[in-house]
Model the fold of this input.
Amino acid sequence: VENQLSTSKVSEFCSFRYGLAVLLHFVNVGILAQGVCVSLTLVTMVNRTDTSGVPNASAVKNLDA
Done:
């Protein structure tokens, strides 16, 4: 009876599986947030590169003549 190993069960809240699931959830949220930031950054960069009012300096001179 004394040689038997005690089978202590780890509590469900602190198990490795749930800890890994929470960690991976936060990793996925971070990756999704980075994707959203990149999408917004690209839209902002494209909207600010409107050069319709700026004359092109290279088109003023004809370099082939």
Observations:
- The two ends are 105 Å apart (CA to CA).
